[in-house]
Amino acid sequence: MDIVLMILATWRISSLIANEDGPRYIFAWFRGQLGIEEELNDKGIIVRVVPDRFAPQMISCVWCISMWIGAVFFLLPPPLAQSIALPFAFSTGAIIIDNYLSGG
Questions:
Q1: Does residue 92 fall inside a structural domain?
Q2: Is the dihedral angle over the CA atoms 77, 80, 82, 88 positive or is it negative?
Q3: pLDDT digits over 10-19, tens only?
């Protein structure tokens, strides 16, 4: 059960950092501070421009940032890791249910 909780929370936090604007655009602002920009291409599609540096490359990829988020959960004392992970795991569950019910 604990491993599932950590997996769900790791994905949610990683997705927030890499892909979502967040409340009050905090994650979009953070990516912008690292030089990550979003632009419209000639077909009107938003394209992410990521500088060729470690931090921007790491946080622009869910797979990459999830390694670091998972490592943090692993290094934290289990009660603290669970307390931090639980709300994010609940959020992931809600996203899964919403996608299923909406046919996404």
A1: no
A2: negative
A3: 999 999 999 9
Q: From residue 39, give the alpha-carbon distance in Å to each of 30, 49, 68.
A: 17, 7, 27
What pLDDT sits at residue 65? 96
Q: Is residue 96 part of a domain?
A: no
Angle at 68 between CA 62 and CA 73, to 5 degrees: 115
Number of domains in the chain: 1
Q: Compute the distance between CA of residue 93 and CA of residue 102 in angstroms, rounded to an integer.
A: 14
pLDDT of residue 103: 84
pLDDT digits (tens, 9 = 90+) for 64-85: 999 999 999 999 999 999 999 9
Range of the domain at 79: 2-86
- Residue 100, domain member (yes or no): no
Residue 88: name the closest of 12, 16, 2 by CA.
Answer: 12
